Amino acid sequence: MVAGFTQTKPRKPHHGPEKRGESKNKELSYTAPVHSHASRFRVLPEFSMAQTALPTSIDFLAPPVLYNEQGEVRTVGVEIEFVGPSAEKTVQALQEALGGRLIEVDPHSFALKDSAIGELTVELDSRILHPGKSAGSQKGVLPKIAALFGFAASYLVPCELVTAPTPIDRLQELDRILGILRKLGAKGTQDAPFYAFGLHFNPEIPRQDAQTLAAFMKSFVLLNPWLRREVSPDRTRNLLGFADPFPADYVRMIVSPDYWPDIPRFIDDYLEANPTRNRDLDLLPLLHHLDRDRVRAVLPNEKINARPTFHYRLPDARVSDPGWSIAPEWNRWVTVERLAVDREKLDMVGSTYLAFEGEDKSWANVVEQVVRS
């Protein structure tokens, strides 16, 4: 196993998302009815390859390292993009089902605090619609323009639902969101050829050290062709380049069994090959958290929110599919984590990749045997 990947018992169990600053805007409170849900979070020996088309329960796999360096259960944030209901209508439905306090940030951005599944935000996913996020906005003018434009744009610009960091062992609770969105008539990637909506995971890194960082990156790029075959991301998302794979030369460099750099060199290598957010595993938020000055020296104007998490952006958001769950996509990510913590296997797969002369499709078949072993 990779050094530092030692699972420990939590000293202070973490039962909810981090508290953030309260908004000064409108606030409504509601207590949701109590529901009883059996946990679907299990440690299973095998990874389920395909997602069922039926609305049946799907188990969430536990990662090999459940606790962070503080002995707390690691967290994961989830982002879901969709169109159809407005941000306001969506957050009102979430409040009715999950309880909590509704806060209006602006006409197209809302927060739900203290709900049954933690803090959520829902907003129309375009910066121009949120005046508070734009430097130098004119008070009183831009909010009115944004409100008017937002109404029209809601038919094409997706809403983005974002959860606060949630303990991984409570991840199955977030599937409740999908049923609420479907009842509202929310549409996902598969519902129109020009929709390019994603499901993103922001899993907390288990250890903030160079070896963990390199191991996860190696594992991800080695499994990438298999992940893309299994996920089968929408063609429009591929054309728009929202979640591009890593350059081949960069992949060959980092999968070498000899490539175990310190954090400064890892960041320098990453930024030289990937000065963009448009990767299927966006590391910029994590690298910004580890060394802000080094990242800003290369990308002074890029919008990056520093956090100790990976940003996995490959899966589609198939919100209207009655059989869709976030579980299969999460389970594929767990496969990345499993390989990352097995140093011997990781080096072996890296050496095999460097000697391999076939296409990505063929490599997906090869690496699938690693997934199943």
Structure description:
With 373 residues, the protein is α+β, with helices and mostly antiparallel strands. 35% of the residues lie in helices and 14% in strands. It is built from 12 helices and 12 strands. The strands form 3 sheets. Strands 1, 4, 5, 6, 7, 8, 9 and 10 form an 8-stranded antiparallel β-sheet that branches. It has a two-stranded parallel ribbon with strand order 2-3. It is globular. The protein starts with 26 loop residues before the first strand and ends with a helix. Residues 1-26, 28-40, 42-56 and 134-146 have low confidence and may be disordered.
Give the overall shape.
Answer: globular
DSSP strand tally: 12
- What is the terminal separation in angstroms? 16 Å
> SS-based structural class?
alpha+beta
Please give the domain count: 2
Q: Taking all residues together, what is the mean pLDDT?
A: 83
**What amount of the residues lies in strands?**
5-15%
Describe the largest sheet.
8 strands, antiparallel
Topology order in helix (H) and strand (E) letters:
EEEEHEEEHEEHEHHHHEHHEHHH
What's the number of helices?
Answer: 12
Report Rg: 21 Å
List the uncertain runs.
1-26, 28-40, 42-56, 134-146
- Considering DSSP H and I runs of 4 or more, what fraction of the residues is helical? 25-40%
Quick overview:
By secondary structure, the chain is an alpha+beta fold.
